[in-house]
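Course assignment 3, question 2. Fill in each field.
Student: A.L.
Task: Predict the tertiary structure for the chain below.
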Amino acid sequence: MPTAPLPQNTDELFQALQENDRRPYGRTRTVTAEELVDAAEQFEDPAVLIHALLELQEAYTYGSEPRKSPVVFARLLTLFDEQPDVFDERLRHMLFWRFKWVAHALRQLPEIPLTSLRQWLTEMRDRYEKADLGLQPYYGQAYQLAAHVGEDTTLAYELWASRTRTRLSDCEACETCQRARYHLRAGDDERALRTWEPVLAGKESCKEEPARSASYALLPLLRTGRTDRARELHLVGYRACRRNPSMSEEVGRHLEFCALTGNEARGLELLAENRNLFDEVDSPLDQFGFLTGVEVLLQRVEALGHGELPTVGYAGRTWTVSGLRAEVRKRADDLAARFDSRNGTTTHADRRRARLDRAPLLDALELTLRPRSLDDAAPTQAAAPVTRTAAAVPEALPELILRARAADEEGHPDAQACWARLRTLVAARDYTHPDDPAVGSLLRLRADLLADEGNRAGEKDEFADAAALHEEAAGLYDDAALPGHAALARACALLATAEIPAEPAEGENGEAESGDGAEAKAAALTAAHASIVRLHEETPGLAPYQEARLLRLRATALALRLQTSGSEDHVAPVFAEVVALHALATRHALDGQISGALLLRASTHAISGNLPTAVTEIDALLDRLKAQGPAWHLPRTLALRGRFQFGLQDPEAAHADLAEALRLAADWPADTVDTARLHGDMAQACMYLGRPEEALRHLTRSAELELRRGSRTDAFCTYSNAAQLSLDLGRVEDCIALLDSLLTEPDVTGGELNDRIVAQLRLTRARALHTGEDLKAATAEFVTLSAESAGWDDDPGSHAMIAAETAVLLGESGEFERAREVADQALAAHARAPRFEHLSNSLRELARLQAQQQGPDGLTEALAFLADAGRVAEEARAAGYQAQGRSLDTALAYEHGRVNAYAGAYDDALAALDKALALLGEPGRDDDAGEWAECVRLAGAVEGLYLERPAPALTRLDKAVSHLTALGHTEETEPLTALAARLRDEE
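Answer field:
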């Protein structure tokens, strides 16, 4: 069934061919090209069929279908022989160019005899000679065949490389790659890299280059110690060839690079991203290259003991690393044997063995901002936290239970490891509980485990789960006749319940009313505190540690209330509870609770706005902890002191405290301190101190720790910030690679993660693609995001901004009709949720782009964009909105000047620029004079060069130069002086 209505005349056919040419290579483009050939055969004009066949051959060639390309070319050659006059100079050039495509296609097919390959080259030579064309392209193909077969290539290389290039020679980038690979096969890495440099530096390029050269240069770069360059080319080169069937061999080389640099987990991630290549690559030679790279990776993963990891492979079944490696090995060995049988050599088997026998070149090379290990690739709900210091876990079951309880009462970090071990033991089907009065019943142990699980849930802000777990634990404690334990569990449940975010109340218009949430939470915490007090008073026989914990929960409830309300009336009750807690803990020598009370007191001073006192209090606590302990409280106390220093505007001191906290945290099990937050705070300190690269490292570390402990939403938000920072730092490829990795996470692809977070990740990626000058990919992503955000009825402002950016990219692509449509959507959303500056900037940029690209023909539409920007400026004035930097009216006047100048309406342009200068006003000594100077320069150029009135233009420029010089803005005078000199030269 046709994918679209078939063209009814030749004009429609040519239009359809142009539209198909804009599609990416793949099955959709190929199928459409096949349909267009069928349609072209219905018309009498042979030129139509020739164009359709050329498009089809291109689709087969770049869609990795080499068996079909020669068949199409045979039809073209027949048409040329029968009707040569139909082929104009352009079509004739394309025909002779594609002799090389056929030679390449035949090399990829082991079923084609070697004699047939040589016969085709003879045919190519004869045709070129008959057409009086230079033979350098023929000798290039002869050399490539010799290299493919494995013959001595010295003579073939010289016959090709020593000849002068012709119009039909491969592009310089492709020929450079062939020359570099010749030196590479000879074992000369340095010469190969020198040869490659123009391509790798981006000075020479084509559809496949520099991506192809980058894939071959990776290992030579490592062998010669250029690791940073290898990393850079891996990121850039991989993105250019991923999921592309015609570049599957290059993908295989990137997988090999990961395997040989300690990045096996990234290799598996990239393999998953390219799962389509197992089934979409029709070229046996490309399959051979891809599968060999895959096997290098899988072999390395298996050697590291991870053969049972799940991975992707051929469709129709699930795969493990070991299972896929066996399948890949069988297929790749078969392909090598078929090529070597056809060629009469052992070249392909030898090259394959050399790649598989290559030892890793580096133990570890950090390729991305998200380094991962094979342990991270294991299919678990949340990777286990990395323990820096192993907890002492007794072997004997009774001792383990008693140690867990003792550590829990003390608040010692070892409790977590003990409870985790017990949880595993109790879950086993053959578990037998000790018959020991000191240990107590199984019922009590199950309650203990539930209480610990509730504590872990609370630490992750999973308050509903925490409340339910503590309530269940309380019920079991009741059954076990342990009222003190039950009271403590119920108190924990009460506090967790109070912290569950309330559903926002709706007003009369159905929208959530702001302000009610804080009041509701404060009320809930007040009620929880009262209930905990009653529990405390009504429960007899409490042990000192239980009573201290209840007092700590009471104080915490009131401290949270203060934090929520900010009310001065709520300060004194917190201090009262803290005094009671401190007195009890001191009386019973409960060091952990003494520290907790002092920490709460310092925090309360900070919340109430008394930061100097808070620092004094916490300094005293630090002295106590260093002298008396508990030592595991030091990291979190230092972390809190660091946050206080932020409030005191002392980022240097904050950085020092946080760095020390991180150092000390390494002495304890991972969850003793919230190290994810510590790294996040360190990132903030680094940004204050002007150290963004260090901040980026802490952000990515924070995100990975959040991911490991299962806080995935927080992790993705932090990663989003890291991606934006990397983009701000100009690390475009790092940004894209990080986001590509995140967007393949199962909870993203499965739709489990919040769709707005995913949209933000994609938006940052689209902006990075635009910054990296991949306009086509950036525009496609923006168009998709704009369409999706149109359905965000609760957030029209975001849609307005996304649609406005999308319109600008469409304008950059020259698609102004679509840009107008999307800009109108942005304006409609802006009417609901104003985004004055963003809309104004985008509309002015669209006007500039249209006038610049279309000149006078685009002036009317460009002025329409400026009229919209004018209405946005009027709305902003009416709303009292103040733009950052120059006013919207000033920017609009300046843009009117530029737009009219591009369109040749110079009088209007000059009038607009004079208006902009009046609005800007002359700069002062401390002002930024750049915009004013540029406006003067453009006005001078319009007046002096285009309106041919040099005298007033020179007066304008000289006056501006004198003014700027007197104020010390000498740098801004340079373009004005240069323009004045040019005008004087032309007088």
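Instructor remarks: The first helix runs from residue 10 to 21. Residues 380-388, 507-514 have pLDDT under 50 and may be disordered.
Grade: pending
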